[in-house]
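pasting for the record
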Amino acid sequence: MTRVPLTWLSEYVELGAEASADLVAAHLVRVGLEEEAIHRAQVSGPVVVGRVLSIEAEPQKNGKTINWCSVDVGEDDPRGIVCGAHNFEVGDRVVVALPGAVLPGPFPISARKTYGHISDGMICSTRELGIGDDHTGILVLGPEHSGAELGADAAELLGLNEEIVEVNVTPDRGYCLSLRGIAREYGHATGGKFQDPARIEIPAASSGGFGVKIVDERPINKNPGCDRFVARIVRGIDAAAASPAFIQRRLHQAGMRPISLAVDVTNYVMLELGQPLHAYDLHRVAEPIVVRRARDGEKIKTIDEQQRVLTDEDLVITDSPDGVAASRLLGIAGVMGGYDSEVTNATVDVLIEGAHFDPISVARTSRRFRLTSEASKRFERGVDHDLAPYAVQRVVDLLVEYGGGTADPEVTDLDERGAAPTFEFAAADAERLIGLPYAPAEVRSILEDIGAEVDGPVSAPTWRVTPPSWRPDLTASVDLIEEIARLHGYDAIPSRLPTAPAGHGLTPAQRGRRSVSRTLAEAGLTEVLSYPFVGDQVFDALQYEPDDERRRGLRLLNPLRGEEPLMRTSILATLLPVLRRNVGRGLTDAAVYEVGLVTYPGTEATCAPIPPLAQYPGPEALAQIERALPNQPLAVAGALTGLRELPTEGSAGRAATWRDAIELALRVGRAIGIDLEVEAASYAPWHPGRCAQLCLATGDVIGHAGELHPKALTALELPERTVAFELDLDRLISSAPADPVRAFALSTYPAGKEDLALVVDESVAAAAVRAAILDGAGPLVEDVRLFDVYRGPQIGADKKSLAFALRYRADNRTLTAQDLRDARTGAIEAAERKFGAQLRA
């Protein structure tokens, strides 16, 4: 974020007579700087300059000590004010909000009784005034405000009535973390004349300056940690001198707290130009300064008084008499200075540092320490390579002018920068990629406006372009094309919707998946999505045998949860916990389903190669990656508990049974054009006596359905009689006919109906008997439906009676009694021949 006071901005670029915060923000948005906030005058009413006459400390029962203060605000009588801060003294000038004032919040001020006194106003901190984040202490006005009369308008004195535009700066636009960068962009947006504050006279580097060495034996990404280091000395400054009022005001407006002249000036120039700087107490630094990588385990106490342990990736600044071995660490380069060399009130001579550090090195150190400073924010986004000597000279000039110092003529400028990057650029590429016609002269003008050097005649097909030093993000032709589009105006690019090519529609597999999902939803089930990760304990809960292949799940190297390191081998392994969660929350009548992948690891462990990022992997590498992938077929599963049919008037409702699970599995098959066959089975986690396997016409088992095993229900904390089904959806879809929609001619002739009850052994499956009836009844049979199963002493032990409803119909005639008798006889004989079935009397 960058806070831009309009009065400061107007010193570097023409704003225009009608400029307002809203208008400035709108112009900045046009060139890609997003408006974050507009800070208007947040203080109204009487906010005045006061002087503390007396302070009486009063301890309270809650352990807190408050100050009962007498404050002169230019009136006949002083005001009594209660204050909880302790960073001010008798005689200090402070900002006082009198009753009737409104501070940011809004926070109206009134006389009120507190801690046994009538507090007639409030002594304010920078946070309470809305000009900073410091709320730990009172804003004490420095000597620069000593001429202000008591009772004078403090809002005007501190610039509280100025409008400030706060903009959000993207990581690639680090140069906009300065007034210089914002002013330049505002000039691009409006055409206003830009005056570069860094365009000042600087002395040439000399050999007699303060000694500096750069020793970086372990550069990151082949980039040296420091490629430029500028140093100047200013002697004889008045350490007690206050920073000028305009500097303090602008620091407050930027959200920074004024500290001392040397520190305030370096911060001010950083905000102005974008170059982080550092001031050392010259008498606390030994010559030469050495910039090097830290050694593992080295420690430094930074200016925030924190002890930090360094690694060999951290770049540090040391003073080293022998040029290599560190006698003392002065700071973490580009992040934060050291405690032992900071400027104090006793400082007389200062050493000013302006350097250029590698963005990657600074970013790594900043993130490892979770230490973000104003310097690190700028360095890690890229600082102008050419700026350091100008920023240092600006600091020197301010210290000489306001601190009474004298600058040494010697200038240290250790410059190890490489050649400026250049690349070829074709003006025609702008029109080709943006889609608007651009004249070569217009393209060249835009590139020169952003500060780029363009070598070559306008008519040449390509130019050699050198980006400006403050734009390290411009590294290729496409970056320049983006700048052309940005400065010419994004609003000038017309919106054209691309013409969508004619599609081929859904694949058969996609249609099958959608049909299955739609069918289950129409049947009243709710689709859920569960995480496909499980732990070993779920296999025991599902009653898998020790040698069951489904126990061999694929183990993850870095699971989301340590207790769930495996990929699921069954949808039910993750679907049933979802059902339990819903039941536990009061949804006792629930029906859910999920369509998802299950994972079966291969028999041999295969490691996939990791191809290099710089090139596309070849066919062999892709084949190895494909072979290393586990088998992940698509499956569908559903689970039901509680009532399948809710109670209505005249009906008590019906609980879900194993028949519902089987019927849902059959409906899934019919949705994609397959009539699945049902056979009795014993397969975990289903009840062995209430489990069916679903088979294709070829006899291949495609899934299972039925009532879950009581032990599984207990382990999973599910209600009794919970039922479920699971099918291999990939195999089901691949076995579906090419055209699952089968149309039949409708007969206009009447149907013949009769019921047939057959007694068979208990072990005979009803579905097998139905198949025999269909086979024996011949082509006239239209439908066979099981409607009753009876067991009792009348038919004998280990026997059951299966009652079927048969319907016959011919396409071209009305059936005769003989037709019905022949079909009935054929059905009974087929059942008797295959299963020993007897017609029940």
